[in-house]
Amino acid sequence: MKGTVIKTVGNLYTVETENQIFKCNYRGKNKLNNRFSNPIVSGDIVEFIISDKETGIIEEVYDRKNYFLKKSLKDKKAHIIASNIDQTLIMASIKSPYTKLKFIDKCIAASFYYEIEPIILFNKIDLLNNNEKRKLDELISIYNKLNIETHTISIKENTNLKEISKILENRSTLLIGNSGIGKSSLINYLSNKSNQKTDILSLKTGRGKQTTTFSEIFKLKNNGTIIDSPGFKDFYFYDIEKNDLKFLYPEFKIENKKCRFNNCNHVDEPNCVVKENLGKSINIRRYNNYISILSELI
Ligand SMILES: Nc1nc2c(ncn2[C@@H]2O[C@H](COP(=O)(O)OP(=O)(O)OP(=O)(O)O)[C@@H](O)[C@H]2O)c(=O)[nH]1
Ligand SMILES: [Mg+2]
Ligand SMILES: [Zn+2]
């Protein structure tokens, strides 16, 4: 029997076929290579054997069209966030909680690396004063110059949510964002039946407590699907290496100009056109975060 994994909790997988849902286990853990901390993820197409009316055993995972990996902090292996996705929706906010630009840039770089289109969604705009609105506009202009789509919304006040529903239509979307940013709230608004747990922000830190502990696919009213993943605080690349990173910054390709060295990483090499264009076509904050991300890589 063939089905799609729509939810994973520990070693229990919920698999959906055209007309039924099965709870499945997976025996073949050792068969898969040892690279992954989680062998099966939401979005996977699997082959399984029905063992009972509503239970089954997964035999095989079909080849994935693509996937999004992060390093598992537990065992340093690859943790698959989701597979078979069309776009990533990177959820961010200027306030409650503040999203670091570095986090956004990492999500964008990883999306490019796995050849998935990134879209940035700034939530909680109802909370912003004029000064903060200006900061948001600055951020938006950074990303729009790079031709990365951005949207601003307030789930609380129902601002611009229709346009978000539109961009998710008929597509499979991975939703990423720090804990407390509003992922579950968005899914609750967009999906039919889900009633995801949302959590009141911790007053002390202004950050959300993590309330989602597994990955799950939700069907939307408009025929799209969205994959929620546990709120991440930080995330680290798994297979992106130092020499890969520069290729994930579209603005580093400067027309008709080349750095002196072919393999220039744009750090302190001489005659570097990226450094020459700092503050011009290269945004300084993006560049500084690039250097900071580079220092995490081997
Ligand atoms: N002011 C305001 N609050 C919001 C908005 N969207 C969500 N919230 C609140 O932010 C808090 C966290 O929202 P969640 O949807 O639980 O966040 P999450 O991203 O799912 O968090 P994790 O599951 O921990 O990863 C809740 O108290 C929401 O009610 C918004 O647009 N404006
Ligand atoms: Mg949540
Ligand atoms: Zn250079």
Give me the CATH architecture of the largest domain, please: 3-Layer(aba) Sandwich
Pairing-aware structural class of the strands and helices? alpha/beta
With helices defined by DSSP (H or I, 4 residues minimum), what is the helix count?
Answer: 7
CATH topology of the largest domain: Rossmann fold
Number of strands: 13
Describe this structure in words.
The protein is of the alpha/beta class. The chain has 3 domains: 2-63, OB fold (Dihydrolipoamide Acetyltransferase, E2P) (Beta Barrel); 82-228, Rossmann fold (3-Layer(aba) Sandwich), CATH 3.40.50; 242-294, no CATH class. It is built from 7 helices and 13 strands. It has helices spanning 101-113, 130-145, 161-167, 183-190, 242-245, 273-276, 284-294; strands at residues 2-9, 12-16, 21-26, 45-50, 55-61, 67-71, 78-83, 87-92, 117-122, 149-152, 172-176, 215-219, 225-228. It has a 5-stranded mixed barrel with strand order 1-2-3-5-4. The chain has a two-stranded antiparallel sheet with strand order 6-7. Strand 12 (215-219) and strand 13 form a beta hairpin. Helix 1 packs across helix 7 (284-294). It is globular and about 65 Å long. The N and C termini lie far apart (42 Å). The relative contact order is 0.13. The model is unreliable at 199-213 (pLDDT under 50). Residues 183-184, 196, 211-212, 231 line the site of magnesium ion.
